[in-house]
């Protein structure tokens, strides 16, 4: 009976260690994904701003040609 309890405790500890490692791995992956997302978001906003500026310049050019 004692052997069973010891074996069971070892299995539980092993499983706990595996889960803790997986948790750490997932946390690292999430942080990397968040960093990547922030970089992509920043790039997207810059591109959107550049497109808006080009549209403004294009509209001004068209208005000047019409005058």
Explain what this protein looks like in three dimensions.
This protein is an all-alpha fold and 67 residues long. It has one helix at 2-66. The longest helix has 65 residues, at 2-66. It is rod-shaped and about 100 Å long. The model has no long low-confidence stretch (mean pLDDT 92).
Q: What's the structural blueprint in terms of helices and strands?
A:
Elements: H1 2-66
Q: What would you say about this model in short?
A:
The protein has 67 residues and is an all-alpha fold.
The radius of gyration is 29 Å
Q: Give me the strand/helix succession.
A: H
Give a quick account of the main beta sheet: strands, pairing sense, barrel closure.
none
Strand content: under 5%
Low-confidence stretches: none
For the residues shown, what is the average pLDDT? 92
Structural class of the secondary elements? mainly alpha
Distance between the termini: 98 Å
Shape: rod-shaped
- The overall strand count is 0
Number of helical segments? 1
Q: Helix coverage percent of residues?
A: over 70%
Based on the model shown, name its key terms.
mainly alpha, 1 helix, 67 residues, 97% helix
